[in-house]
Structure formats: C-alpha cells, structure tokens
Amino acid sequence: MGLILGSRPKYKAGNGGNSRGVSAKWVSALCISSFCFGVLVVNRFWTLPNLIDSEKFDTSVRKYVTGDIYPASRCERKKEPFDIVSQVSQTNDIITTLDKTISSLEMQLVAARAAKAEKEEKHSGAESGLEASNNHPKLLFAMGIMTAFSSRKRRDSIRETWMPQGEYLKNLEKEKGVIIRFVIGHSAAPGGVLDRAIDAEDAQHRDFLRLNHVEGYHELSAKTQIYFSTAAAKWDANFYIKVDDDVHVNLGTISSLLASYLLKPRVYIGCMKSGPVLAHKGVKYHEPEYWKFGEEGNKYFRHATGQIYAISKDLATYISVNREVLHRYANEDVSLGSWFIGLDVEHIDDRSLCCGTPPDCEWKTQAGNPCGASFDWSCSGVCKSVERMEIVHQRCGEGSFGINSSF
User: Fold this and answer.
1) What is the rounded CA–CA span in Å between residue 325 and residue 213?
2) Is residue 164 within 8 Å of 206, Cβ to Cβ?
3) CA distance to 114, 383, 390, 391, per residue, from 387 (Å)
4) SS3 of 253, please?
5) Which residues contact 69 (CB under 8 A, 6 or more apart)?
6) What is the pLDDT of residues 155-197, one digit of tens each?
7) What is the pLDDT of residues 30-46, one digit of tens each?
8) 3-state DSSP helix/strand/coil percent for the chain, to nearest 5?
C-alpha cells in the first residue's frame, strides 16, 4: 500500500505514539514559564534604572525651581533692584570723597609750589614784617590792610588805635596766631621817591607786606588777587582777611568769629550784598562789563562788601592756583565774589562786620554784641578816618576785653 504523493500519515493514538512526541500541556507550561521568566528579567534590569533616573530628574527639577541648586542666583534676582540702588549710591559717595581728596591734595601741592616760587622770586622788594617760622603752629588768620602811597596818615591812625605795635605785634603772632600787615605794591618806577618813603616807614614799624604789583586805583582787583596768593604762600593760616585802611576793627571779636568756623571748609565771610550794576560812565563804581550781567538795571550776584571780608585757606589757595585765568572786574569785591561762583563755597553773611560808627557800634557794644568792624556806608569807610578813628575806637573798641588785654 504505497504513500500518496503530497499526503502525511495520520496520527495514530496509542502507547507507541507517546514515545516520540511532547505533550501539549508541557509545551504550554514551558511557554508560560519562559514568558514569566522574561518579564522578570526585563523588570529587574531595565525598569529599576528608569525609575531611579526618573526620580533623580524629578528631584533636580524641583531643586532648580525652588532655587536649591543655585541659591545665589535666586537671591540676586530677588535683591537686584535694591542692590543696584545701593551700589550706585555707594559709588557716588566714593567718587565724591575721592574728588574732594584729590582737590585738597592739588591745592596743597600748588600751595607748596607757590611757596617755593615765592622764595626763589628775584623781585622781592624790601622784605618786611615778621616772618612766620616753619616750626610755628598754624596761624588763626593773616590780615592784610590795603593801603596806598598817599595814605600815611590813615596808617598812623590805625597804629595809634586798634593795631598793636612793636613787641605787641610780635606777641600777637606768637601767642594768638594773628598776623597784621599793611599791604602795598610798588610805583610805576620802582625805587623812586614813593617806594623809598615806604622803605623808610617799614624800617620804622616793620608792619608791611610788599607785593610785586604796580599800585593804582583801577588795579584793586589785581592787587587783591596778588595779596591772597602771596599771603597764602607766605603764611600758613586758617583764614586770610582783606580790610581797607579806613575801617575800625576789633581784633578780639574777629578772632572769636573766625574760630567758630575752623571746622568748616571753603568759607567766605562778610556782609553779603547784591548792589545794582552801574552801566553809565562817569559814576562811581561804574561797571564797564555791565552787559555780562544781563539787562540794564540788573543786580550783581551775592558777594561780600569790599570794606572787609575773610576767606578760608582753601579759597586763598584756589585763587593762587588759578590767578592766571580768573577774570577781574572793575570792582574788587565783585571780582572776588565771581571767583567763587560755581564752587562749593559757604557764603556767611555776618552783620557784625559792617556796623556803623557811633552811635550804632556803641549801642551794640553796650548790648553785649561788639562789632567786628565799623565804618560809614556813605563813605565806604569811616568818614574822615584820620580825625575820627580815635573817637570810634574809644566808643566802640573792645578795651580791656580785647585781644591785646593779655599782653
């Protein structure tokens, strides 16, 4: 019985069939076991790392969001507006401090150079006065009394009243730190009769400061400028005073006044005013450059009246440093005020420096408010000062309470 092509023999059940095949149950059990084993292996080596990485990722995200990873960045973002304002403010303070320090150092440097130049200057004229030694302590003030060749009698009236003489003048410097000198330049022909007369007067009294300056009424602004430059180089004082030779002064009151401003930098002290700009020629105090002050009828900026005023050392040094470029107006008090415009200067209006002559200064003295300086506004000084200075001194002077009382 042969096999038919393309057919398979039928399976015959029986004991003989089990000896060569595998039961279906075992095959199913084996498949299920393999599947379970595969699942176990896959979960063991792949699922756990993924879970771990997922946890790390979640943790990292939470830390980043909450700022735990970069706490400084979070603080900076929160405080950024405050820090910027604070830093800008601190920077401005530092810049201001450095600027003031540099300005102070520049002034000191130029003052030293000016002092050296003063010593080396060939044109010294007749050296006058009592020279301040480098070993002496700093002076309270140096006072320059502006005078002219024709004012010998005015100078004598001051020497006989409020200005100490001889040894008293020396003691005033040593014990009180106060220097007083008449300030004068030289004539257009140096060495002439006028200069020799001053030489003789200085040899007698030893109370002149000679300037390298040609005397002239219309050169008062230049004279004032040169005076402050020369005085700042010659004497190390806290203050420098300019006063006219027809003004009565109480030195004790002036000393007390200035001592109260020792801790203030850059002070400008006097009787502050703001008078009209006089544009018409031929009048007293005519201002040739009136057009610079605006429309006709305008007033000057605030400045100290010219009879007497004081400036601190910083300002005197500033004048010395910049004297070549500081503009000079016709009136010296206006010129001085203009030099300080734009600077950080404290203007101090002290009316005790512009009292009237008796009875005004007398009443104020009796009331316990002695005047630092007295003069008549109508005369821009004590009227007929040669004849009246003694009377003003008797009625308005400090007497036994003055700066000379201890000598």
Assistant:
1) 17
2) no
3) 40, 9, 7, 8
4) helix
5) 60, 63
6) 999 999 999 999 999 999 999 999 999 999 999 988 899 999 9
7) 777 777 777 666 555 44
8) 50, 15, 35
Which helix or strand (DSSP H or E) is residue 153 part of?
helix 152-159
Residue 178: strand, helix, or coil: strand
Show the tokens assigned to 85. Answer: 């304002």
Tokens of 101: 């320090």
Rg (CA), the chain: 48
- How many Cβ atoms sit within 10 Å of the Cβ of residue 356? 19
CA distance 83 to 88: 8
Q: Which residue, chain included where needed, has tokens 């060749």?
A: 149
Nearest residue to 235 via CA among 304, 175, 313 = 313
CB neighbour list of residue 198: distance below 8 Å, 6 or more residues apart: 126, 149, 184, 208, 210
Please give the helix or strand (H or E) that residue 142 lies within, else none: strand 139-146
| Distance between CA atoms of residues 238 and 140, nearest Å | 5
CB atoms within 10 A of CB 87: 10
Q: Is the pLDDT of residue 249 over 90?
A: yes
Q: In what order do the strands lie in the sheet with 346-349?
A: 208-214, 178-186, 139-146, 237-244, 303-312, 267-273, 346-349
Nearest of 165, 320, 297 to residue 233 by alpha carbon: 320
State pTM to two decimals: 0.69
Question: What is d(CA 363, CA 385) in angstroms, rounded to the nearest whole number?
Answer: 20
